[in-house]
Amino acid sequence: MTSDRSQTTALTNIGTLITNDPTLGDGRLGIRHDAGVVFADGVVSWVGGSADTPSADVGHDLGGRAVLPGFVESHSHLVFAGDRAEEFASRMAGERYGAGGIRTTIEATRRATDEQLRANMMRLADESLRSGSTTLEIKTGYGQSTEHELRCATIAGAATSEVTLLAAHVPPPEYAGRVDDYVRMVVDEMIGVCAPHAKWIDVFCERGAFDRDQAHAVLSAGIAAGLKPRVHGNQLQAGPGVQLAVELGAASVDHVTHVTRADIDALAGSSTVATLLPGADFSTRSTYPDARALLDAGVTVALGADCNPGTSYTTSLPFCIAIAVRDLHMTPDEAVWAATAGGALALQRSDVGTLAIGSRADAIALAAPSHLHLAYRPGVALVDHVWRSGDLEYT
Ligand code: NIG
Ligand code: FE
């Protein structure tokens, strides 16, 4: 559902409003009660008390609902074919997750037509929007050849401007035992061809995928081609991913499930965001990251859903917030901030993740009086209104 962007929209009778702007309300979340908001020209133009809300072309009485900034999904892998439900079932029966399953999806993705890949991606992007994610990053990574990574990046660009070239996810089957040859091909050929279609460069720095030097080579080549770095690191065991991300000034390092004290200290002294992906730890039956240690050290933490067919086949940030609160011991306020303002920092975006004056009018309403219900009522589809750039997309 879309409307004329020149129309103004007033939201009134908001039970709990999260602005993420401390100048507009209480605490880091800038919380107000009995609030009103006005959207004009696709941005937030007014925030105040419900009774004082200026009139607008369109009015929504929220009946005491909570209103939050739309979630900022900074980590997803939506360009793929097939699924790996059997692999998931085997894991639940005791098998360990190994990155090798990624090759199953590479093979299925290479066989799929552009139209099949686009339709599957759009289905998942729509699912993500319905669960409240109004900004969406999408990675390639299931092509792993110049031809197929270009195809995946181009398809991702139809759904978002936040395209990440995950040029080095796992070495594809034709490079088995020749990982350095694959890295050379990525550096000498793939990145140059694909960079015009992406904003970010990413690498899976993990045993069984790419080691520190290989990851460094890929990220450096991406940076030289004008891309900004982000890293998959420290998912399956402690390793060099976090330190490499900090060293290269990456916007974020994602997973961060197995970290040392030195990793935490390095993150705390940096501008690199630690993006936690608890859906992946849930679905691989891994231990969860030590979010408390990260937060208590002053690390900036984001939450992502990491939708992909292997480790986390969910698009739901509300589900991840519930895990983050229940199992990662984040407070509901920390978890909501991480899925909104934290995601925005992970994408180096200042226009989303908050409902400050001038922010993009991306907001969600919950069928609940406060954001606490996102964790308190797990598995319930609470998001019942989604506005993007001021347009009501779902209700
Ligand atoms: O973010 N860690 C590497 N990549 C994905 C998993 C990909 C897969 O198993 O297909 C992740 O968890
Ligand atoms: Fe991922």
Care to describe what's here?
By secondary structure, this protein is of the alpha/beta class. The chain has 2 domains: 9-70 and 354-394, Roll (Urease, subunit C, domain 1); 72-346, TIM Barrel (Alpha-Beta Barrel), CATH 3.20.20.140. 33% of the residues lie in helices and 23% in strands. It has 13 helices and 16 strands. It has helices at residues 85-92, 101-111, 114-130, 146-156, 179-194, 212-224, 241-247, 261-268, 278-283, 291-296, 317-326, 332-346, 373-376, and strands at residues 9-18, 31-40, 43-49, 58-61, 66-69, 71-73, 133-139, 162-168, 200-205, 228-233, 252-255, 273-276, 301-303, 363-366, 383-388, 391-394. Helix 8 (261-268) links the parallel strand 11 (252-255) and strand 12. Helix 3 packs across helix 4 (146-156), helix 5 (179-194) packs parallel to helix 6 (212-224) and helix 11 packs across helix 12 (332-346). The longest helix has 17 residues, at 114-130. Fe (iii) ion binds at residues 75, 77, 232, 306, 308. Fe (iii) ion binds next to loops. Zn(2+) binds at residues 75, 77, 232, 306.
